Amino acid sequence: MKHRIVVLGAGYAGAFTAGTLARRLSPKDAEITVVNAVPDFVQRMRLHQLATGQEVKAPKLVDVFAGTGVRLRVARVAGIDPERRTVAVADADGGGELGYDTLVYALGSHGAEQGVPGAAAHAFDIAARPSALRLRERLDALVERGEGGSVVVVGDGLTGIETATEIAEARPGLTVTLVARGELAARLSAGARAHLRGACDRLGVTVLEYAEVETVEAHRVLCADGTVLASDATVWTAGFAVGPVAAAAGLEVTEDGRIVVDRHMCSVSHPNVYAAGDSAHAIGDNGLPLPMSCASAGYTGRQAVEAIVGVLTGRTVPQTKLEYVGNHISLGRRDGILQLVDGEGQAKPKFMGGRGPARLKAAILAMSLWATAHPTFGLPKRKLRLTSTPDRSAQQVGRIAA
Fold it and tell me: Which of 53, 150, 313, 395 is the most core-located residue (most Cβ within 10 A)?
């Protein structure tokens, strides 16, 4: 009987993990199934561009995995039973169950309204393609009416900064306000913050600092200090959260629901479950939790692949890098910031700003899309065979390749 590997989620982490496992393991021994709620690969890191009317490709997953042997199940994950090693899925046909021997949990994260009244009902988020497209329709409608309009972006994390500057550049007829709970981009160096403020001034983005949003209404945003902001389109980027599936299944999770994993991305409570991407609470090489990011998806996905391959084929599990090197922020299409961090995750004094970082980030995202859409590139002629009885002892005692 083949070893059944089920990968939940086909975002940056899940698609990479599934495609790479298909490249490494022999189809004679391993059967790989991917479960994803939508039939497309979503470039989440570019959804702020999609919202402003730019073309952002969404390759069909059946095309992505064509020729790999990976099976695709377009369905929503309804639950996991780790004792029976099954996954319950729901789709238009009523759903069902999938059995697994090894599970990779890469369901990612979604926008979090944080309990703010009206945020869910009246604000847009750009954590998913459908919501980004709805925002796009609203922005288009505001431009077409020819009377201008006001956009309020709540949250000054990387997503909020990129969204506000992208909208201001692509839709110059609209007024854009960026609401920051504290100092704008406080985690950046002084020079990077100054560059960001200059970009906001150049693009006409109004920055409101030390403001806490209390209520979101259909056409207004109310702050705790009494400030009222008129808003024809409110964009909520004030945080992200993971779904409840892992916690409901009894896996050990953090307070925010992320799966607690060891250095090999294996669940500390369930040795047949691995996690990658935003769903994983992984400790980086600097001793700090890796942030939710596309870069972390790559690092954790790579380590999960090496661990699974090592365990299933009887090889020593290598320790891959788990780094947090910095932040790469786009400020529209012609400006950006590259901010490196030190071993403690604090911003280094030096940074890069301007067209160079903007072009570099665009190139990295293009490369990520190409690599995801071509999982068979460099396909080895001889794939690794599985051992008859996979040995997890190497992983459990933390044996690491030198």
Answer: 395
User: pLDDT tens, 231-240?
Assistant: 999 999 998 8
Asked whether the predicted pLDDT for residue 252 surpasses 60, the reply is yes
280 sits in which H/E element: strand 280-281
Phi and psi (nearest 5°) for 132?
Answer: -65, -35
Residue whose tokens read 């700090």: 288
- CB-based contact 149:175 (threshold 8 Å): yes
Taking the CA atoms of 194, 196, 201 and 207 in sequence, report the sign of the dihedral they define: negative
* Whether pLDDT at 363 is above 50: yes
- Cα atoms in the Cβ-side hemisphere of radius 13 Å centred on 107: 24
Q: Are residues 199 and 266 in the same domain?
A: no
Q: With a cut of 90, say whether residue 401 has pLDDT above it.
A: no
Per the domain annotation, does 357 fall within a domain? no
For residues 268 and 189, give the distance between their C-alpha atoms in angstroms, rounded to a whole number.
Answer: 36
Token pair belonging to 390: 């996979």
Residue in this structure with the two tokens 């090496």, named with its chain if needed: 306
User: DSSP labels for 169-224?
Assistant: HH-TTSEEEEE-SSSTTTTS-HHHHHHHHHHHHHHTEEEE-S--EEEE-SSEEEET
Residue 28 lies in a domain: yes
pLDDT at 389 over 90: no
Domain boundary (201, 216, 236) is at: 236
Task: Kindly state the tokens that stand for 266.
Answer: 């294996």
* Residue-averaged pLDDT of the chain: 92
**Which residues span the domain enclosing 163?**
113-236
Where does the pLDDT of residue 393 fall: very low under 50, low under 70, confident under 90, or very high at 90 and above?
Answer: low
Burial class (CB in 10 A: 0-12, 13-18, 19+), 149: buried
| Number of domains within the chain | 2
- The DSSP annotation for 128-143 comes to SHHHHHHHHHHHHHHH
